[in-house]
Amino acid sequence: MGIIILGIESSCDDTSASILIDRKILANVTANQEVHKNFGGVVPELASRAHQQNIIPVVDQAIRIAKVQKKEINAIAFTSGPGLLGSLLVGTSFSKAFAMALDIPLLDINHMHAHILAHFIEDEGKESFPEFPFLCLTVSGGHTQIVLVKSYYDFEIIGQTIDDAAGEAFDKAAKIMGLPYPGGPLIDKYARTGNPEKFPFPHPKIPDLDFSFSGLKTSILYFLRDQLKNNPDFIKNNKNDLCASIQHTIVEILMNKLKEASHKTGIKQIAIAGGVSANSGLRNALYDRQKKHEWQVFIPPFEYCTDNAAMIAIAGYYKYLKKDFSSQEVTPYTRYK
Ligand code: KG4
Ligand code: ZN
Description:
Largest sheet: 5 strands, mixed
CATH topology of the largest domain: Nucleotidyltransferase, domain 5
Strand order of the largest sheet: 3-2-1-4-5
Helix content: 40-55%
Number of domains: 2
Radius of gyration: 20 Å
Bound molecules: 5'-O-[(R)-(carboxyoxy)(hydroxy)phosphoryl]adenosine, zinc ion
Shape: globular
């Protein structure tokens, strides 16, 4: 029998549980929270309540799908941060209690590292895995980082956003256009039939490998305000072109810095991770590079892009190998460390 890990993710608005045996996923169950849709963003108080309601059924279902006995589980891995404190506390408390009840080790996992380590999940038919060192563009709703990944345990941030994250840029642009939260996937959907060159938005001038997205939000806001004065139906009439142009701008900003990072480090193995790695524009831009034989690219399957517990379980697996266990005193943290 291999090593069996139960992974728990509750850092934002998805309650997720996964069972992994060695590097293979047996179950990955996620309860999305619909309550935030009407508020234009995640409401922390509602998120933690929903986690509290969802966590037991989600874990129960994962264990049933995986067809394992609780006593066969070797360790429990959970997200300890970064994220929303109330949300993290639910997963943390559950995991501590579960570990204590079964007398098994507890593994606290950094959510951003887990997004990257999802690349090492052994799915059927998957042939290639990144080799160290590689670069990973980690793009989510809360973070945008270029990470130099030196081992399963050694992550160096060589570039990051100085304000908004890429996912936030998508979501805020969508909100300005009157689209519901989270707007990223909707922009992606409408962009497919739009003209990406129709509305050129300015690129920020930020030194080194850092990013900035707050200026883009402001330029979209002012552009639409001016257009709506002349034509109140401007957004409705240009929805697809607007989405394609916004997406194109964000993808270009990300790709330019990624190219620079590859150039500076000489590394040509490039991975993407995090919710925004589900974006078809970004995925296609990377595939284009691969076709030119410049890079070997690693793009996660959709189920491991947005928040999920499978990535927590695989990160837990590597910590378990090192016997890097947490104590019952471990507490969650909100900011990346
Ligand atoms: O990693 P994630 O699920 O949660 C965080 O850790 O933040 O990322 C969520 C973010 C949201 O901003 C969402 O709009 C964005 O990922 N996202 C997308 C797409 N799917 C999710 N953005 C653009 N295109 C998509 N297809
Ligand atoms: Zn995430």
